[in-house]
Amino acid sequence: MLLLAGAFRAWAMMLVSIGIIIKILLEKRMGERIVIIGGVAAGPKAACRIKRLSPRAEVVVIDQDALISYGGCGIPYYVSGDVADEKELRSTSFHMLRDEFFFDKAKRVTAMTSTRAISIDRAEKTVLLQDVKTGAEETVSYDKLLLATGSQPFILPIPGVDLDGVFTVTDMHKAIEIKARIAKGQVGKAVVIGGGAIGIEMAEALKDLWGVETSLVEFQKQLLPNILDWPMAAMLAQHMDDKDVHLYLGESAAEIVAGDADHVAGVRLSSGKTLDCDMVIMATGVRPRSELAKEAGLHVSSKGGIVVNERMQTSDPTIYAAGDCVEIPHLVSGRSFYAPLGSLANKEGRVAADNIVGIPTIFKGAIGSFILKAFDFSAASTGLSLESALAEGFDADVSLTSSSDRAHFFPTQQVLCLQLVFDRRTRRVLGLQGIGGASDALLARIDAAAVAITAGATVDDFGNIEMAYAPPFSTAIDAINAAGYVAENLIDGRMRQMRLELFYAWMENVTSQPDWLVLDVRHPKQAKPFMEKYGDLWLNLPYEQVRDRYAELPTDKTLVIFCNAGSRSFEIQRLLDSVGLENNIVLAGGYNFIKRMGADWLPV
Fold first, then answer.
1. Residue among 19, 22, 14, 17 at smallest CA distance from 359
2. What is the DSSP string of 514-556?
3. Architecture category of domain 29-152+288-356 in CATH
4. CATH number belonging to domain 497-597
5. Per-residue confidence at 27, pLDDT binned at 50, 70, 90?
6. Mean pLDDT, range 48-67, rounded to an integer
7. Span of the secretion signal (predicted)?
8. Where in the chain is the domain with CATH 3.50.50.60?
């Protein structure tokens, strides 16, 4: 007991000592002036954190806009009407508007709006400012400086980008004007240029609530390039098409065509086709706003992001940077990458604030977790795509699974399609992608995967991830576990799969592989349309009959085993292998994937 008491006293004294050290550090910084350039996400988060930790610090936030501290990711939902008033994007959870008055009276932070930072003098530790309205200049000194300058939209170098009616989705002013024009009935047709997250969300906003005839143009051959791989992107594209959004994939905008009074009248595509419209939304991506840092001599990468360490310090130890202007480490690939996400900006702002006031805190990086809603679908990813993993040199492969998002007998169950990306050599999971209904089901799996992947989880770990179970929420063997099981079977050689890309190519040109035959193990009613269309290429032998009738199967064909989800196909593959009929392969994903991806060759 005496030993325990002594150990407890030592532990308590150590805590007191740590507390005294932190207090000294905080008091040392009392009265320091912290200048923050940028007032949307990372900047305000850092400012408020600094004041909580060091209430006597002088904190100044500078932004060239009149509107600050708003939820930029909510702009598409404001345009759509899901968020009724733009002030909701600029308000706290307790409905206080985040403006100059709020920051002054509630936070004791000075917010200098409509003020542009012109240059940084690192030797004198000053920032030259300019009043946007009057042009008047002044200089403000700093003890510590935080750059939270955010991002800027990429403007296509094509004629017509300056026409009236052409918008980027970058700030509240543009969002307010877009919604005002639509509400006044001035927009009957719109073209969205860019098939990334903002482009998809804006296309939904225009079409779903307002009924605007909407076209979406994407230079690459799929939606969400560099985020989703082709099967998932194809499902999303098919759903957008089903909702009457006209997609032009693999096409670029060559010119924005002028009509009367220099107002937009259309978009001419690289194919020569012109899409008539009253409004153009240019959502072609963003770039780090790092010019101020570069001109100040700070280290900026070749891709334009400000280079920071784990404490969000730049190459000048008195200057920090956070948010959409920085590059961060990717925790799977190990390389720096650009991730302009509001969630990360807030985390980075908090870490920068801690270090500014002397509390050692680190931001290790991220893996790019992402989710969006598109009409009745949700699409999400975390970690590396297959394409990215292969480019990084991993021995990458995928498992495709389609499981129920809750108990199959529960009335609201929906199919959850997942693609798990893994490294065959190390068994490490590299990424997860999914398409599901517009609920929280996909989010739960992506979030669980993000934590596991960050921790270096293997496919075996994924098979054992514990997910909360109750029939209204999940299945006893969760969808994320099933993805891990299939990956285990592939790595260990128990399963051989055919990629959907190869199957699609064959269906579009069946003469390319005359020795292939589809073995459809579904119910005869499900197989009938395919058999009627494809005749001798499609053989139906129901799952429950294969064990008794496998001797009837041809031995001179490669059997492509086909079911809804792939689980029955795998079981049949194991059976056929056991009796010496090894000329077979499982179609990854099965019909659940194919019917959501769509194809001209599918039976009507």
1. 22
2. TTEEEEE-S-HHHHHHHHHHHGGGEEE--GGGHHHHGGGS-SS
3. 3-Layer(bba) Sandwich (3.50)
4. 3.40.250.10
5. very low
6. 97
7. none
8. 29-152+288-356, 166-284, 370-491
Indicate the SS3 state at residue 413: coil
Backbone angles phi, psi at 529, to 5 degrees: -60, -35
In angstroms, what CA-CA distances link 215 with 91, 267, 284, 425, 518? Answer: 33, 10, 15, 43, 37
Q: Which residues contact 390 (CB under 8 A, 6 or more apart)?
A: 396
List, for residues 194-224, the tens digit of each pLDDT value.
Answer: 999 999 999 999 999 899 999 999 999 999 9
pLDDT band at 23 (very low <50, low <70, confident <90, very high): low
Backbone angles phi, psi at 479, to 5 degrees: -55, -35
CATH 3.40.250.10 residue window(s) in the chain: 497-597
**Exposure class string for 89-100: b at 16+ Cβ within 10 A, else e:** bbbeeeeeebbb
Q: Which residues form the catalytic set?
A: 73
370-491 topology per CATH: FAD/NAD(P)-binding domain (3.50.50)
Q: What pLDDT was estimated at residue 3? A: 44
363 close to 351: Cβ distance less than 8 angstroms: yes
d(Cα 485, Cα 494) in Å, to the nearest integer? 11
CA distance 389 to 396: 6
In which element (H, E) is residue 215 found? strand 213-218
Spell 280-298 as b/e; 16+ CB within 10 A means b.
Answer: bbbbbebbbbbebbeebeb
Superfamily of domain 166-284, CATH level 4: FAD/NAD(P)-binding domain (3.50.50.60)
